[in-house]
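Figure 6 in text form: structure in, sequence out.
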């Protein structure tokens, strides 16, 4: 209803009248009626008293006529409409009534006994009863009260009417105008204003509504302008923009999108975007869009002319609800970029020198090859190829010659590869070959023979190469790609250790060796952290008199559970892992500290300490470190002998030459260890400042060999080395002396010193010191 507010106001006012005014009016009428009834009763009471006295004598005398006259007089009084007079005996019953026939109201009866005073006293002769109509609410009103009520009702009606009229003009009318403006705005879409001016709440409401309409109208204009501008930007932006609904249907496309794809707007609006994507990438687009709210995906888009271009689609949510999903997407042509990425990817996984796969590409192909082998029910052989002596070629003939050899090797290898085979250069001189076959081991061994034949022809004059090949078979030896490559690598290193130039099939014993090596590595690290390394000392004696001239420091690892561990494997693993530097520093410091303790023993003040150094220890900081150790313990530098092997000197490294010279200048002596076992030992005497020559123990054992020829040649070599060394002012020490015969023979040959089990075994420093002190005490007692 349009006037529902007015009707509710009318109902509220009427309700207020009924609740508050009507009860008061009814109460007033009730009180007026009570008052009038009381007045009538009082009048009748007085009248009955008087007439009861007047009737006493006639009723005593049974004078009916007099009784009737008196009754008629009573009934004519005021409100009385009926009188009844009865005596006690029932002989007299007079009734007078003025009640009209049409009266059907209620009568109120008032009675009084008639008493006659005789000589015998009062006698009750009978009763008189009068009747008057019962008064209603309005029956007792006086004229002035009627006037008052009329004025009151008029005032109430006036207020009621005024309220309705005021509500109509000052509330209903502006509300109807406001409603009309709102309805017009809703139906016509334009912003209508309320024509109402006042200073009250309705005026402020109308003013606020008009301001709101003005602001909304301004915002709508801005929105329309922004929409037009967005539409212009959407169409004029040089980017392929499009929008999709929740069903992946195209709802809008930009002009540039149409220009780039060749379609017209009417042909594509409403089409499913996936229909415009090639079947090979359609599933990817659909799955990614369902899974992601704002996807980024690259697909192939089919243009109107049938041309397929690689496009990068980046989508963002433009609006979302319970059942709608609008998006804004930009489509970028990345065909050239994709081609460039493919080229870069090929370059990234290809070795630039040989054209084979590099390590990254090989690892990616390896997974695919394993999957293909599983699908075809085949095996897969992995050959890990490492060239022998290739470092020598790079160092002596130059890297260009090495690169040429690698290229030539790959050219020769390609002729032996089947289309299903895959070869890669993993780095440096390491290669890997994958061979899928039903019997992969047989195929691998055949390929190894072919690889061996490749190296029969020199790669250049005086450039002879060979290869060590490790073989692992999937799934017999490995279950994963990484494991297959690892185990073929282990097999290759096993072949390297066994003499190079050949092939080795992986077996589980290699795992045991690998675990053993890993255990040694862990022990080395734990030994460095927990101080398990000790410097054992083996005395070096003068062959003429057997007096101790010095001590050689030997590394030992004293494991808390396993005890002393073999040093050869520990040194080998420490050198391979470059931990030999840390180990060597520990042994050097402990050995110098032990020499300081031994120097306190009488007669041992001039003994020297020989310390073995790995090639990796010859770093620029070595002279300063050694100087710090000897300075800390008060040892003269000339008492330190630095033992080096041909492995240190063979490459004639200028840095190593400089460090050796610096140690010599500092005062240390230089000893050439294992002399005679290398290819060019004599040349080192000329190129390096050597003070001591240590003849290898293999010559020592051979001087008393049962074969006369071997014995004779060994003695000649030792004599020659000794003579030459003495000519160059070098001291000669024989290693590995175990028998008196060997000692006597070497002494006769002119050697200066010797060491071996015949004299002393390597011992813990504390034990050796106890022996030396005990020996000194025994000599003192004997003298």
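Output sequence:
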């Amino acid at each position: 209803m349009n006037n529902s507010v007015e009707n509710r106001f009318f109902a509220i006012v009427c309700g207020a009248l009924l609740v508050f005014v009507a009860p008061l009016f009814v109460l007033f009428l009730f009180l007026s009626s009570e008052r009038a009834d009381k007045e009538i009763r009082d009048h009748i009471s007085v009248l009955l008293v008087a007439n009861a006295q007047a009737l006493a004598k006639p009723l005593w005398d049974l004078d009916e006529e007099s009784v009737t006259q008196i009754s008629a007089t009573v009934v004519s009084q005021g409100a009385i409409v009926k009188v009844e007079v009865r005596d006690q005996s029932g002989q007299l019953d007079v009734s007078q009534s003025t009640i009209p026939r049409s009266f059907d109201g209620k009568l109120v009866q008032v009675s009084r006994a008639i008493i006659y005073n005789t000589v015998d006293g009062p006698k009750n002769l009978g009763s008189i009863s009068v009747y008057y109509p019962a008064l209603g609410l309005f029956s007792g009103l006086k004229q002035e009260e009627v006037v008052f009520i009329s004025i009151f009702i008029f005032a109430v009606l006036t207020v009621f009417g005024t309220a309705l009229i005021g509500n109509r003009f000052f509330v209903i009318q502006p509300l109807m105008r406001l409603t009309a403006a709102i309805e017009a705005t809703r139906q016509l879409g334009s912003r209508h204003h309320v024509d109402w001016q006042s200073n009250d709440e309705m005026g402020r409401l109308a003013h606020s509504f008009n301001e709101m309409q003005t602001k909304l109208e301004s915002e709508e204009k801005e929105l329309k302008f922004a929409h037009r501008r967005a539409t212009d930007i959407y169409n004029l932006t040089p980017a392929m923009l499009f929008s999709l609904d929740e069903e992946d249907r195209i709802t809008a496309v930009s002009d540039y999108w149409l220009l780039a794809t060749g379609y017209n707007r009417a042909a594509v609006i409403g089409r499913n975007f996936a229909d415009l994507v090639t079947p090979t990438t359609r599933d990817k687009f659909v799955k990614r869009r369902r899974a992601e709210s704002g996807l980024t995906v690259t697909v192939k888009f089919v243009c109107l002319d049938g041309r397929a271009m690689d496009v990068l689609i980046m989508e963002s949510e433009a609006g979302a609800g319970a059942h709608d999903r609008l998006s804004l997407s930009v489509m970028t042509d990345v065909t050239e970029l994709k081609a460039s990425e493919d080229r870069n990817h090929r370059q990234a996984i290809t070795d630039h020198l040989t054209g084979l796969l590099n390590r990254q590409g090989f690892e990616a192909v390896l997974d695919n090859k394993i999957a293909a082998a599983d699908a075809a029910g085949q095996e897969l052989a992995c050959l890990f190829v490492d060239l022998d002596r290739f470092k020598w070629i790079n160092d002596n003939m130059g890297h260009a010659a090495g690169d040429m050899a690698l290229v030539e090797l790959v050219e020769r290898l390609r002729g032996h590869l089947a289309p299903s085979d895959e070869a890669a250069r993993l780095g440096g001189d390491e290669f890997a070959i994958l061979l899928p076959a039903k019997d992969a081991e047989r195929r691998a061994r055949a390929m190894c023979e072919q690889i061996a034949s490749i190296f029969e022809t020199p790669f250049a004059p005086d450039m002879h190469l060979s290869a060590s090949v490790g073989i692992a078979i999937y799934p017999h030896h490995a279950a994963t790609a990484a494991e297959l490559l690892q185990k073929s690598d282990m097999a290759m290193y096993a072949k390297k250790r066994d003499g190079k130039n050949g092939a080795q099939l992986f077996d589980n014993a290699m795992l045991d060796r690998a675990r053993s090596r890993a255990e040694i590595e862990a022990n080395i690290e734990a030994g460095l952290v927990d101080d398990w390394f000790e410097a054992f000392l083996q005395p070096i004696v003068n062959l003429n008199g057997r007096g101790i001239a010095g001590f050689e420091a030997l590394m030992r690892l004293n494991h808390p559970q396993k005890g002393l561990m073999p040093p050869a494997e520990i040194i080998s693993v420490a050198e391979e892992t470059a931990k030999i530097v840390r180990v060597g520093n520990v042994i050097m410091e402990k050995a110098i500290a032990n020499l300081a303790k031994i120097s306190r023993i009488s007669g041992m003040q001039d003994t020297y300490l020989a310390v073995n150094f790995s090639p990796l220890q010859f770093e620029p900081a070595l002279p300063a470190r050694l100087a710090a150790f000897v300075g800390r313990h008060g040892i003269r530098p000339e008492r330190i002998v630095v033992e080096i092997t041909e492995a240190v000197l063979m490459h004639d490294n200028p840095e190593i030459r400089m460090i050796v010279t610096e140690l010599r200048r500092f005062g240390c002596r230089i000893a050439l260890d294992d002399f005679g076992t290398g290819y060019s030992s004599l040349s080192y005497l000329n190129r390096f400042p050597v003070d001591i020559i240590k003849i290898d123990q293999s010559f020592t054992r051979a001087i008393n060999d049962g074969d006369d020829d071997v014995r004779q040649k060994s003695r000649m070599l030792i004599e020659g080395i000794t003579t030459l060394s003495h000519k160059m002012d070098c001291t000669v020490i024989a290693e590995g002396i175990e028998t008196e015969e060997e000692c006597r023979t070497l002494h006769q040959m002119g050697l200066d010193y010797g060491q071996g089990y015949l004299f002393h075994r390597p011992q813990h420093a504390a034990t050796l010191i106890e022996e030396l002190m005990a020996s000194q005490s025994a000599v003192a007692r004997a003298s």
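Caption detail: The chain is about 50% helix and 20% strand.
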